[in-house]
Predict the structure.
Amino acid sequence: LTAVTGVMPRYGSVLGGEQITLSGSGFSGAATVMIDDRECTVDSQTATEITCTTMNKPYVPGEPTLNINIDGVGSVATRGLVYRYVSRWSDKETWGNDIPPLAGEAVEIPSGQHLLVDVQNVPQLEFVLVYGSLIFESNNNDLTDHKTFYAGYIMVNGGYLEIGTEDFPYMSKLTITMHGDKE
């Protein structure tokens, strides 16, 4: 059986240059790896592991995809596993080479964008609309780490919100505070 059983890390910068490891079985021929229709250059390969380096990824609407083809074998079953190209909250490029949103402003995450909250504190936002992905990064090296996120409301509309998963639980502390009035 030719299948992927793991993708590590699960996300990395839209700027590219990230080395990822795909584990699985049946990787016995030369592999071609495509992530979101961008080639991931294969650095090394065994029958159970492929290591590749990502390219940069300009914004394109849509869901993340992972396609692996093995010469003489064909497509590899990815079992729904993907790699997400993320825009980091802390990166000026995420905000058009400007500062991150200030208190009272709104954030819209369009379909196809995966916004990784990698900062300690986010100021009180008016609202956050999630059509793409909003991912909170756990600091597993410091379980006392405490992030805070403030918003009037967060609406996930066909998007993805991740604060850990069953396989990758959020191990540090996160406080999300919603603000509003009686109305």
Remarks:
- The two ends are 57 Å apart (CA to CA).
- The longest strand covers residues 38-45.
